[in-house]
Structures are given as C-alpha cells and as structure tokens.
Amino acid sequence: MKFPIVAYGDPVLRRKATAIEPDEYPHIKALVENMFETMYGAHGVGLAAPQVGLSMRLFVIDAGTFAEDEPSLKDFKKAFINAKILEESGEEWPFNEGCLSIPDIREDVYRKKTLKISYYDENWKHYEETYDGMAARIIQHEYDHIEGKLFTDKLSPLRRRLIEKKLNDISKGVVDVDYKMKFPAVKKGR
Ligand code: NI
Known about the structure:
Layout: E1 5-6, H1 28-41, E2 46-48, E3 58-62, E4 77-97, E5 107-120, E6 126-132, H2 133-146, H3 157-171, E7 181-182
Parallel strand pairs: 1-7
Antiparallel strand pairs: 2-3, 3-4, 4-5, 5-6
The structure holds nickel (II) ion.
The site of nickel (II) ion has 5 residues, from helix 2.
C-alpha cells in the first residue's frame, strides 16, 4: 500500500518524532514494507515516517541507485528504527539534495563525511555502525526528518529567500509531481 507523501508546510514535518516501543507497534514490518513501496513509487532513495504523516522514529533507505559510483551501496536497503546518531566527524562536503516532501527543489547541502549510528531494524535487531560518503549523507537527511528538520533549514538566508515562493507554492499544491501528495494549504473538498 502506498501512502500519500506529506508536502512542505505540514506541521508533522516539524515535530520531533517519538520513539517506537515494540509492544505498542506490532505491525512495524507491514509499515516498513508500505514505506518502501511509497518510496519506490516516488523514485526516492529514502523516506521518513513523518513524511507519510506518522511522527515516529523510523526511516527507510535504498541507496542502490548510487551503486555505480559507490559499489558498496548495491545492497544498501535498510529500515532504521529509533536511530540515534552517536557521532559525526570529518570534513563537511556539499551535495545537491532533494526531498520527496519538497518536489522540484534541489540545493547544495553541506554535511559531515562520517557518522556513527545506533538503530534497530524491523526485526528489532540492534546495530551500531559507522557510515561515510553517500550512505552517511542519506542517513543524515532522513535522520533530520525524525528530528523535525528539513534540508532547506541548512541553506544560507539568501538561498532560502530565493526559493521561498516555490516552497509556498508546494504547500498549496502548486507543483508538478507524479506521485500522490498531501498538501497542507489545500482545503479539503477542493
Ligand atoms: Ni527528505
């Protein structure tokens, strides 16, 4: 089942998401599956639960499309539950990022090269791992989502001003997009 993806401007994208208790959420595997389906349907490489309207500390990533540049990413398909970034290090480097909640906008974002993260997978197996390069980049972007942050927060005031109208348009649904979205500034029944 595909979810509609929540667009820029929805308050759920600004909330710090809450941790998931295994007992409180027995259907986590089905949710993870649906999130992957939603992400693939929108040609994304990552999707966080707040982007489908759920303020939960969960995100999914499939970085396989970057395998040409980074062969180690070929089988990088994972769900991250209750993730916690323990450490970030290395030089900051720019990459032109996009976001399924902010269609049609891409901007250079600087992030640190390496991170150490603790998380659970959908079987509640615990991991503590180190990532760098593109894997770290995607994790950082998705992790920001469960912290209520968006990549546009990281832009210079000038860049932000330049895209402000476009962001407002996205909230109102004035954007060309080929996947199902939920726009916060569109009144029901329109
Ligand atoms: Ni995003």
